[in-house]
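Consider the tokenized backbone below.
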């Protein structure tokens, strides 16, 4: 805990020094931009938000879209901002965040950038709390919530950048239509499955499970890297054996040693569900990831009966 505090403190000091150096040249909001007076630099915090924003801003002139965490970083559970991130934030006019607590570690830094406008992709989404009372931030894993996030991004960008409002609205409609069509396909595959009990590797599935009426009977790790104790692992094994559930979902972004232990002790089968926190920087990436998840999930639930 102390080391984490020291790291965050040093990053904050570095940021202040960086902004001070910038202040000797131009003032944020007054600097001349080489791309034109009306150009807008939009930053996103991590991969799923970048893909949503890329669709909303697709082919719109004068938009520069950048991302902070690399597309291989995964969730921001243990992410630390670096000097390059601070440079990107200083360059940005608008920052799009997932919200729901995902970027709370950035609050102090954002507060030092008063001209940076923030778009909250999770605005007005009903959030699920975990057992400790903390909001679960993995809202994009639900197709319905992903649609709402895209709509939020489109609406808030239009308000901040009204000259391009029609473009944002058109792109938002195109992409949300694709997402809605995917949602229909997923319901066709999942809705008629009998037994719907699963075990998940970590707590990234509640919104998806809620949308498709899937029962999560146990979570092996509360978050990636939080290895369960021997007692917690034994309890998960007991639940699996008592319920007869034979489906465990791991995630391709993380090691699954504890999940493999549960599978070995219970005879449950491991499947991979991609929560779309990493991937290709392509506008259709989320759609492709979720279609693959649909096929895997349908196969797994049918074998779980």
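A designed sequence for it:
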């Amino acid at each position: 805990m102390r080391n984490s505090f020291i790291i965050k403190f040093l990053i904050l000091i570095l940021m202040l020094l960086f902004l001070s150096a910038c202040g000797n040249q131009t003032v944020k909001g007054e600097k001349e931009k080489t791309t034109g007076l009306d150009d807008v630099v939009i930053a996103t915090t991590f991969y799923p938000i970048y893909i949503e924003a890329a669709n909303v801003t697709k082919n719109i002139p004068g938009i520069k879209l950048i991302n902070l965490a690399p597309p291989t970083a995964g969730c921001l559970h243990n992410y630390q901002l670096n000097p390059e991130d601070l440079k990107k934030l200083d360059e940005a006019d608008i920052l799009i965040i997932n919200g729901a607590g995902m970027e709370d570690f950035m609050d102090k830094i954002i507060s030092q950038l008063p001209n940076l406008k923030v778009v909250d992709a999770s605005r007005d989404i009903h959030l699920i709390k975990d057992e400790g009372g903390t909001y679960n931030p993995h809202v994009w894993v639900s197709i319905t919530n992903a649609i709402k996030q895209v709509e939020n991004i489109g609406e808030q960008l239009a308000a901040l950048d009204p000259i391009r409002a029609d473009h944002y609205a058109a792109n938002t409609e195109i992409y949300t239509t694709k997402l809605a069509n995917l949602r229909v396909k997923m319901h066709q595959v999942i809705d008629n499955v009998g037994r719907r009990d699963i075990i998940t590797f970590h707590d990234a599935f509640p919104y998806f499970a809620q949308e498709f009426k899937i029962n999560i009977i146990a979570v092996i790790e509360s978050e990636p890297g939080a290895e369960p104790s021997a007692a917690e692992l034994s309890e998960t094994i007991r639940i699996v054996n008592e319920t007869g559930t034979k489906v465990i979902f791991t995630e391709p972004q993380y090691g699954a040693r504890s999940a493999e232990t549960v599978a070995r002790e219970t005879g449950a089968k491991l499947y991979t569900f991609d929560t779309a926190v990493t991937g290709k920087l392509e506008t259709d990436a989320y759609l492709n990831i979720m279609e693959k998840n649909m096929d895997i999930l349908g196969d797994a639930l049918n074998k779980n009966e």
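Confidence is low (pLDDT under 50) at residues 1-10, 16-37.
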